[in-house]
Amino acid sequence: MPHDHPDDAHPHSLLPSDPALRVKALESLLVEKGLVDPAALDAIIETYEHKIGPQNGAAVVARAWREPKFRTALFTDATAAVSEMGFYGRQGEHIVALENTDRQHNLVVCTLCSCYPWPLLGIPPGWYKSDAYRARAVREPRKVLAEFGLELARDVALKTWDSTAEIRYLVIPQQPAGTQGWSAEALAALVTRDAMIGTAIVPSPA
Ligand code: FE
Q1: DSSP characters for 9-41?
Q2: Where are the domains of the chain?
């Protein structure tokens, strides 16, 4: 397999020179043959570009910070709790929420491929799918976090969770100091995608 040999002079010679062009050609062909409806394709793309993304996960985190009852429900059955907020669908069938505390920080990876809670975070970033992240998040997670700019205190345990097709994890970061009583919208604006993967925390805005 050419992909196993990064030093190969033509490592990607089997890949199309322009994937976007190939996709366009395939789409045209499928539409022409009446196999797909272009409006349906547009709707899917629109959904993933504008409606599904880390803002969904951020809304869940903000609510968990503000509402103790929701927080309990989230850690009891996250799939049900987030479905109730309208977040469900492909790649989000079994969501598990992980609680960051003073004593434990959680980090999510998919060592096999790129499993990810799509309805809550959208499409995974490129680095999440990289061989380096997938291997090192398990082997040397503290080093990986340091490279993301997160130096974890020695007395904080670090647990890496391996996603699968069956379970998708969402990290619930700790609420930063100085944000008690903030609105859900203001809190959600602080929560980044990386904080919900575990490669970052939510810093205090002060
Ligand atoms: Fe995967």
Answers
A1: SSTTTTS-S-HHHHHHHHHHHHHHTTSS-HHHH
A2: 52-197
Q: Give the pair of three-digit tokens for residue 165.
A: 């097709």
Per-residue pLDDT of the chain (206 residues; tens, 9 = 90+): 333 334 444 444 455 567 777 888 888 888 888 888 888 878 777 777 777 899 999 999 999 999 999 999 999 999 999 999 999 888 778 999 999 999 999 999 999 999 999 999 998 999 999 999 999 999 999 999 999 999 999 999 999 999 988 899 999 999 999 999 999 999 999 999 999 999 999 999 97
Q: What is the fold, at CATH topology level, of the domain defined by 52-197?
A: Nitrile Hydratase; Chain A (3.90.330)
Residues lining ion ligand 1 (Cβ < 5 A) are 110, 112-115
Q: Is 113 a catalytic residue?
A: yes
Question: Helix axis angle, 54-66 relative to 68-76, nearest 10°?
Answer: 120
- Catalytic (active site) residue 130: no
The one catalytic residue in 13, 17, 83, 114 is 114
Active site residue 115: yes
Concerning whether 183 is annotated as a catalytic residue, the answer is: no
* pTM of the predicted structure, to 2 decimals: 0.81
Catalytic residue among 28, 113, 130, 204: 113
In whole angstroms, give the CA distance from residue 5 to residue 200: 32
